[in-house]
Design a protein that fits this description.
Strand content of chain B: 15-25%
Oligomer: heterodimer
Largest sheet of chain B: 5 strands, parallel
Order of helices and strands of chain A: EHHEEEHEHHEEHHHHHH
Number of strands of chain A: 7
CATH architecture of the largest domain in chain A: 3-Layer(aba) Sandwich
Distance between the termini of chain A: 55 Å
Largest sheet of chain A: 5 strands, parallel
Strand content of chain A: 5-15%
Number of strands of chain B: 34
Number of helices of chain A: 11
Distance between the termini of chain B: 36 Å
Shape of chain A: globular
Number of domains of chain A: 2
Bound molecules: flavin-adenine dinucleotide, iron/sulfur cluster
CATH class of the largest domain in chain A: Alpha Beta
CATH topology of the largest domain in chain A: Rossmann fold
Strand order of the largest sheet of chain B: 10-7-6-18-29
Strand order of the largest sheet of chain A: 2-1-3-5-7
Chain lengths: 304, 656
């Protein structure tokens, strides 16, 4: 049997996912014995996408070009793997779905502090027509396997590639970050929501969420080894939800609503219900940082 | 034997007219015709009363003739007839959970009477949703658990006493736990009881003695319930017996010890009006008649040890003792406490000596009380020649207790009568908002007291001042009948303070997962049809802990609670509803959110192979779904209300 041919492509990205592949370090050696990277723009500048067994695509769908490349990859590759949270869910660039395309262009090319553009020159549309809103990969082509994460954990990339090489079904962890988190858990009931670093820092060793800081560990797929909470940083949810959950942010709202003021003696008067929302600073940014384009309400409703 | 799911759904839809309740608004024939067009529906019809015998027969026949394996009835609320139809379906050989009810009455015809067309459309929507869910229904099997034939009664007031005796007389083992040194509760403090004026102790002490003698009752007085684990049929209870420093098995209650004890402190039982020793029984008829040493005040002089002599009942080194019992059901009868009148500073309670509470008055007027039944005022020990009784102190007050305490009107009329009886020339005023004399013989008693010359003034007192020299009190109020202010100078004031749940109820409430109503009293399962049960299976309520009530109501509820608590025990086993939460351990991350939110303590996170995983105790789970909504990993599903079943309903609604 010849080497397995792998083609990589990147769409709307920051290139962290590619670095994560390289981060396999010597772990990549046994893989390299069996595979041939026939196309990998981060390392080798080749214009044509060749036929391949496995296509790994990172990045979200932002513009016309991304759609074309994604479709071509689908045609040329037998198996498509979405690598990283942008490809899987839309990722951080997806937060621009809160604005119209025009607002986004205006911000990027005119009003940012570092921009001087008195003539209001914008990129030519025929080069890179920006889509009205960001989409995850699977809204454009069929995706066979997902490796979430921002960046995706290298060992997870390794295990998915190894499984594919061995002809096995790649498996992602099914549980949540809490399961991997070493912090001490007692009771999930929070009298108020606090903003990390602004309203203080969590005590070490104790569950961050239980101290009132929004940690998305409970609503986020395991696989990262709970890197963030282990060092006292709240989980931001980059691994996305578990297989059973449709909308990561909505699920977290449901969980927060359930534990907020849970132990307060008195019934919460209806006029105070809003307080939960008030205490949540930037709810969309906080709860949908990586998944807005794949959520139930993937963008701000725009008037035609 | 019951047929299960798995095979291709063959759904039957039955649309009920409910006489004209539904058919008067909804075009039921059109709805049934519409149902026939829905996927997997192989049979649909309408009938005048689906819940009637012929209606149920119709369902059974159709199941057989058309080989139906899922049934949808579009009728009233499932709260009313879900069980009826589950039974029907199961009698026809189907699993009872392959049934779904669409509510087209309460949620449709009754609220859209003026818009029949839209109501018919909505009925179709509701039927389409029910059919969508029915397609995904799964058979569920109820479980049976055996019941431990014993009952725990918490609180030894009249409620706990009555419930214990009823149960014990049925042959059921009872463990009665009372936190005070004696049972009797507040009723044993009272002198006479309205409206018949029989002596409280005379009617209560025989019952107290019965409790102490009954072979089926184990009394743990001066004890507290510290832990309850388990569920209906199988509660594990940990009781802590506080040290009395006097051995119950040796003390004969002779009282020689108290005679020699040199330490005197105010007696809590008399609400501070009389003294007791450091070694004491709270009152002469205490049950058990065992002395207790108050170690906060004991100086360990050892005089009592000498006085006790050969009995050697006194043991300064006694330790708290833990007792574990197993019971099938629990009755909570933790009673009440008076509202703290200090919270109404305008009435000067705790500041002016001659302002006392109603319960203090009960001790004053009681023949076995600190004054031997003489009504005297605290400042000078003289009988007051004028007394004002203020009603609704704390009660019916938006700034204190918004509810009516229910007993104060009547006991205050009783107090007025008692003053008139013992000090005939005394002026007695009652300041009231209105007199609520609702019980049997109560209005008559009210009339009687009015004729005894008691002066009733309609108006709430605004404030009280003390004349520092005479210690007399000046009561200001507005007479709302005459529409003018009144000012009374009286020698004593009795505050008819409202009632609140005994604060010692709270830890019990939390341990047993009983909910509270907004007034703080324990919440009954249904205010009309089930006032003696809680929403927790196997836990029942008796007496004031559920809400203010007088003795007759307390006793009636206690007997009802005893009866309800005995049902599972007499049945010997209970059937557990299979609509419960279910954890997929592959998804569960052990975050513990479910454990925090479950109102019944049914989920616990446990170590499973080094990982934290949620576990549901199916007997405790009520299928409320709180955990399912909260579980952030999606690990929890509530059977019969699974995500795919609910989403199918939502889809059906939106794509009709
Ligand atoms: C001033 C006054 C006069 C009244 N006069 C009349 C009258 O004339 N006629 C009439 O019908 N009604 C009268 N009542 C009402 C009557 O007192 C009550 O209806 C009755 O006492 C209620 O009984 P109970 O058992 O529910 O509560 P309680 O009498 O309060 O008994 C509760 C018992 O539970 C115990 N307990 C509490 N918490 C715990 C715990 N955690 N563990 C163990 N034990 C616990 C308490 O120590 C207490 O012994 C009067 C009330 C007052 C205040
Ligand atoms: S800190 Fe975050 S990840 Fe860790 S247990 Fe708490 S909620 Fe879960
Ligand atoms: S809430 Fe869900 S994920 Fe968290 S412990 Fe419970 S079952 Fe597990
Ligand atoms: S469904 Fe309700 S009762 Fe059952 S475990 Fe979940 S929260 Fe508790």
């Amino acid at each position: 049997m010849g080497a397995v041919r792998i083609a990589c492509e990147w769409l709307g990205i920051c290139s962290g996912c590619e670095i994560a592949i390289l981060d396999l370090h010597e772990g990549i050696l046994p893989i390299l014995e069996k595979v041939e990277f026939v196309h990998i723009p981060v390392l080798v500048d080749v214009k044509e996408i060749p036929e391949a067994d496995v296509g790994i695509i990172s990045g979200c769908i932002e513009n016309e070009d991304n759609i074309e490349v994604a479709k071509e990859m689908r045609e040329k590759c037998k198996i498509i793997v979405a690598l990283g949270s942008c490809a899987c869910f839309g990722g951080i660039p997806g937060l621009r779905n809160l604005y119209t395309r025009e607002e986004v262009l205006e911000k990027a090319y005119v009003t940012t502090k570092s921009t001087v553009n008195p003539d209001r020159v914008f990129p030519r549309k025929d080069v890179l027509e920006l889509q009205e809103y960001v989409k995850p990969l699977n809204q454009v082509i069929k995706v066979d396997y997902y490796i979430p994460g921002c960046p995706p954990p290298s060992d997870l990339i390794g295990s998915v590639l190894t499984a594919l090489l061995e002809g096995k079904e790649p498996q992602l962890p099914t549980n949540t970050v809490c399961d991997e988190c070493p912090l001490q858990k007692e009771r999930k009931a929070i009298p108020e929501i606090r903003r990390w670093c602004v309203d203080g820092r969590p005590e070490p060793d104790k569950c961050i969420l239980e101290q009132g800081f929004i940690c998305l560990g409970p609503v986020t797929r395991a696989g990262c080894g709970a890197k963030c909470p282990s060092i006292g940083v709240p989980c931001r949810g980059c691994m996305g939800p578990t297989d059973r959950v449709i909308d990561q942010g909505a699920k977290m709202i449901s969980a927060l609503g359930s534990i907020w003021m849970l132990d307060e003696e008195l019934e919460i008067p209806p006029e105070e219900y809003d307080k939960l929302a008030e205490q949540l600073y930037d709810p969309v940014g906080m709860l949908y940082r990586f998944t807005l384009p794949s959520s139930l309400i993937p963008r701000k409703i725009m008037k035609k | 034997m019951s047929k299960s799911g798995g095979e291709e759904p063959r759904i039957g839809v039955f649309v009920c007219h409910c006489g004209t309740n539904i058919a008067g608004v909804v075009d039921v024939k059109e709805v049934a015709e519409y149902a026939k067009t829905l996927p997997n529906v192989v049979y649909a019809t309408d009938y005048v009363y689906m819940c009637s015998d012929p209606g149920q027969e119709l369902i059974k026949q159709a199941i057989k003739e058309h080989n139906l394996n899922r049934i949808v009835v579009a009728a009233c609320s499932p709260r009313l007839h879900e069980l009826t139809f589950r039974r029907t379906v199961s009698e026809a050989g189907l699993n009872p959970f392959l049934f779904e009810q669409a509510n087209i009455r309460e949620q449709n015809s009754w609220v859209h009477m003026d818009n029949p067309e839209e109501a018919t459309r909505k009925a179709k929507d509701l039927v389409r949703m029910a059919v969508a869910k029915a397609r995904l229904l799964e058979p569920l099997e109820p479980k049976e658990v055996p019941v431990e034939p014993a009952v725990l009664v918490i609180g030894g007031g009249i409620a706990g006493i009555q419930a214990s005796l009823d149960l014990a007389n049925k042959g059921i083992r009872v463990y009665l736990v009372e936190k005070e040194p004696s049972i009797g509760g507040n009723m044993i403090r009272l002198d006479k009881t309205f409206p018949t004026l029989d002596c409280s102790a005379c009617i209560l002490t025989p019952k107290m003695v019965d409790v102490s003698r009954h072979p089926n009752i184990t009394l743990y007085a001066y004890s507290e319930v510290v832990e309850v684990d388990g569920y209906i049929g199988n509660f594990d209870v940990k009781i802590l017996k506080k040290p009395r420093y006097v051995r119950e098995d040796r003390c004969t209650g002779c009282g020689k010890c108290a005679e020699v004890c040199p330490v005197t402190v105010p007696n809590e039982f008399d609400l501070g009006l009389g003294p007791r020793k450091a070694i004491y029984i709270p009152f002469p008829q205490a049950v058990p008649a065992v002395y207790t040493i108050d170690m906060d005040h004991c100086i360990k002089c050892g005089l009592c040890v000498k006085a006790c002599g050969e009995l050697e009942a006194i043991d300064f080194d006694q330790k708290p003792e833990e007792v574990n019992v197993k019971v099938g059901t629990i009755i909570v009868a933790t009673g009440f406490e008076l509202f703290d009148a200090r919270q109404k500073p305008e009435y000067g309670y705790g500041i002016y000596q001659n302002v006392i509470t109603s319960l203090q008055f009960e001790r004053l007027v009681n023949a076995s009380g600190p004054t031997g039944g003489q009504i005297v005022r605290p400042s000078d020990g003289k009988p007051p020649k004028s007394v004002a009784i203020l009603l609704c102190v704390g009660s019916r007050d938006q700034k204190a207790l918004p509810y009516c305490s229910r007993i104060c009107c009547m006991y205050s009329l009783k107090h007025a009568h008692q003053i008139k009886e013992k000090i005939p020339d005394a002026e007695v005023y009652i300041l009231y908002m209105d007199i609520r004399s609702f019980g049997k013989g109560y209005e008559e008693f009210y009339n009687r007291v009015q004729h005894e010359g008691v002066k009733l003034i309609r108006g709430r007192a605004s404030e009280i001042w003390e004349d520092p020299e005479t210690k007399n009190l000046i009561v200001r109020a507005e007479d709302t009948f005459l529409g003018k202010p009144v000012e009374l100078e009286v020698e004593m004031v009795i505050l008819a303070t409202g009632v609140i749940p005994n604060p010692a109820t709270e830890p019990i409430r939390k341990a047993l997962f009983i909910t509270q109503s907004p007034d703080g009293f324990l919440l009954e399962a249904h205010p009309k049809l089930n006032p003696m049960s809680t929403t927790v299976d196997g836990i029942y309520l008796a007496g004031m802990c559920q809400g203010p009530k007088d003795i007759p109501d307390t006793v009636a509820q206690a007997s009802a609670a005893a009866s309800a608590a005995s049902i599972p025990i007499l049945q010997g086993k209970i059937v557990i509803e299979p609509i419960v939460a279910n954890v997929d351990e592959n998804l569960c991350g052990g975050c513990g959110i479910c454990e925090s939110v479950c109102p019944y303590g049914a989920v616990t996170v446990e170590e499973v192979g080094g990982k934290r995983k949620a576990r549901v105790n199916e007997a405790k789970c009520k299928g409320c779904g709180s955990c399912g909504a909260a579980c952030p990993s999606g690990a929890i599903t509530v059977l019969h209300f699974k995500d795919d079943q609910i989403l199918a309903q939502v889809d059906a609604l939106l794509t009709g």
